[in-house]
Amino acid sequence: MFFKKLKVEENYKEFESIINDIRLNDTVKTMNNYMQHCNTSCYTHCLHVAYYTYLLCKKFNLDYVSATRAAMLHDLFLYDWHNHQKANSFKELHAFSHPKKALENSLKLFDLNEIEKDVIVKHMWPLTIKLPKYKESYIVTLTDKYCAIVETLKYINKKYKLRMIYRYAYIFLTILFIRF
């Protein structure tokens, strides 16, 4: 649909060149060992978010390089959140705590600019409460939610063969997403 139309070879080559050092990093590759949404690995999820972030930020003349790189790192928390230790407070719950862990891990591996740091630590807004500082952060936040929903719907569709529900939900989400 909308995004398939935008997957032009030229765009994809530029996208790959932007995240190449991140993509090839051994620590980042370990994200393949952790499931994010249903049967989608954390690495694949971040790759999806990064690509759609790239397309949207480029379309809106934003800093698509910083946003794309941060989107590829936004879930670099490196643990199985499905079996994570019990939290003693809201702050310790995965949804609230993983952005800070992802930022810590990212800073150990890469030099990040202010946009990249903001994107990573605030991608779970509104749960993170503090408003994102940059437009790029909002793009990643929305793209992350969109990709999570699509990944979950694809899994449900495959598992339960609910093709019609999936098609209508996908069309609805795509139309909704395009309006932003």
Protein model, in words:
The protein has a two-stranded antiparallel ribbon with strand order 1-2. Helix 2 (9-23) packs across helix 5 (64-73) and helix 5 packs across helix 8 (135-160). It has nine helices and two strands. Helices cover 67% and strands 3% of the residues. Strand 1 and strand 2 (40-41) form a beta hairpin. It starts with a helix and ends with a helix. It has one domain: Orthogonal Bundle (Hypothetical protein af1432). It has helices spanning 2-6, 9-23, 26-29, 42-59, 64-73, 94-109, 114-122, 135-160, 163-179; strands at 35-37, 40-41. It is mainly α.
How many separate domains?
1
Instruction: State the fourth-level CATH superfamily.
Output: Hypothetical protein af1432
Q: Helix proportion of residues, in percent?
A: 55-70%
- N-to-C series of helices and strands: HHHEEHHHHHH
- The Cα radius of gyration reads 16 Å
- How is the main sheet built? 2 strands, antiparallel
CATH architecture: Orthogonal Bundle
* Count of DSSP H/I helices: 9
Distance between the termini: 16 Å
Specify the structural class: mainly alpha
- The overall pLDDT average reads 76
- Count all strands and give the number: 2
Topology record:
Elements: H1 2-6, H2 9-23, H3 26-29, E1 35-37, E2 40-41, H4 42-59, H5 64-73, H6 94-109, H7 114-122, H8 135-160, H9 163-179
Antiparallel strand pairs: 1-2
Helix pairs in contact: 2-5, 4-5, 4-8, 5-7, 5-8, 6-7, 7-8, 8-9
Quick overview of this protein structure:
The chain is mainly alpha-helical and 180 residues long. It has 9 helices and 2 strands, in the order αααββαααααα.
